[in-house]
Amino acid sequence: MLNSNRIALGLLGVALPLALLAALVSGPVSIDLAAALRDSWRGESSEAVILWQLRLPRALLAILVGAALGMGGAAMQGLLRNPLAEPALLGVSSGAALAAILLLYYGLAWQSGWWLPLLAIGGAFVAVLSVWALAGRGASASRLVLAGVAINAFLSALMALALNYAPSMFAMQEIVFWLLGSLANRGWDQLLLALPFIIAGGLLLFASRNYLRALTLGEASAASLGFGGRRHPLLLLLGIAAAVGAAVAVAGTIGFIGLVVPHLMRPLVGQDPARLLWASALCGALLLLLADIFVLNFVGAQELRIGAVTAFIGAPFFFWLIVSARRGGAL
Amino acid sequence: MSPEGASKTMAARLWPCLVALLFSTSTAAAERIASLNLCVDQLLLDWVDHERIVSVTWLSANEHYRRAALPEHVTLNRGHAEELLGLEPDLVLVGQYGGGRAAARLRQLGVPVVTIPDAHNLAQLQQQLQALAAELDDNAELLRQAGRLGQILQQPRPAELLSAMILSANNLTYGSGMLEHELLERAGFRNLAADPDGGEGGQLQRVMLEQVIAAEPELLVLYGGEQTFALAHLAARHPVIRRYVDSGRVFTLPAELGFCPALVAADVLEKLRQKRESLVEQQ
Q1: Residues B205, A301: C-beta atoms closer than 8 Å
Q2: So what's the pLDDT on residue B28?
Q3: What is the reported pTM?
Q4: Domain tally for chain B?
Q5: Residue A123, Cα to own-chain centre: how many angstroms?
Q6: Residues B124, B222: one domain?
Q7: Which one of B48, B78, B137, B190 is CB 3.0 to 4.6 Å from B161, fit for a cystine?
Q8: What local confidence, expressed as pLDDT, does residue B143 receive?
Q9: Which ipTM was obtained for this model?
Q10: Cβ(A275)–Cβ(A103) below 8 Å
């Protein structure tokens, strides 16, 4: 059983570069991949520009965002010991999305083009810190969830208000598209903007791995093992805010990856929440990249938003989960 | 002056007269005009004596659309019949789409309502100007614009066509049958997004950036000239577009062309022709 799990994880590891290759050959224009690769990233030919400036940054961004969402979901489920937890539960995604919406709503100048992602990351941090402040000293997981639901509801209300008073139909469309998520037209600049925050978030989560392991024994046991106090959950939350906030900042809100991926990976890592972090990052990256390949190959008058694709992956998964749980008598 | 030059000058002088004859009507000029259409708002504010305008739509107060000064006495309406009734207009102009219920109610109540057709190609644009001229009773500015457009359209198309492609908001491009396509063709460009069979199948299509790069148009046409941030313009702001900007192979269509082409169609056509000439010289 252990070996088969390792093989499955190994296959995921092998599938990622293969999916990357598939992403690089996916698109409406047929290119000679070998020639474009030989042409180097400074190449002036159309094929080199398409490969190095359009397809590669988009595919790498899909991997990065998917990894951040998967890892964020695993960390959130570990922290709250709730299989239905995801980054959105504590308002991380909503905070980032609201900041982006307010920017779009008030139409602040583009400036360097960094306002939107920076404010979105700031929004994620503000949301998490608000949840933290509301939950109060020595907050239990259930109180954190309650505070998260409250902050999330408040942020959703603010988003609804912004939508209600959207100054024009174009602003409304912008906001709706933002909430559906997209990787289209993203380049190296967005990738490089998100990268440091996602790496920093990943490092914070990695540093919290033993805290997550201890939490599986319960909060009291974790405290007796030296993981008491507010520092550990705060670091974990800041890690989630950095990683997921940066992902939302450059790609909009992409749902279900953070919720579904930890469920898929948990049996493969023997329920170990620390190993679940990197396994979810790997699976999240692969799943989002595959979703983007589907988007790239989808022919239609309008761009198919990647958030819609992940929702179509996520919803049937939960149907399957509930049906299998009923058969096994778990629910 | 050469005989050819003299005939061109004569044609230029005759065009406004021909247009005036074509558009001339015998109706009495309305003195209290209200509009339920954004484009008609702008045309009225731009071309008609402001004293004759009693109401325009609220959208005309929006900086995004406002092209002419908005006089203080003009009431902004939100397309409700009761807003206009109190103003006692003797002419209400309504667009082909939108404001239909208010227009129907006003007609029932005996208010003269005239529908001005929308313009999505050059033929419709001329029909729109004609319909407007019939109501505005030989408006000088309208006749001048219509004459100018007709005159430009009479000019022969350049024999050598340069390739062009439009990259608009949300990665949309304009194919056969659209006004933007016709303007490009009239100016001497071959629209790469046009249906090669000349059909109208692909009027508004989605185009990905890599398709634009692979098509290698000699002129990249952007839309809007928006300075503020919008997700819809991410494609036009992508670094791969810089090489077009750096080599001067970009032309930006004014936003007005999207919501009221009558305001700018003649200007756009003239500027596109000039752009083509400068590109040919560069080659």
Answers
A1: yes
A2: 62
A3: 0.79
A4: 2
A5: 15
A6: no
A7: B190
A8: 87
A9: 0.73
A10: no
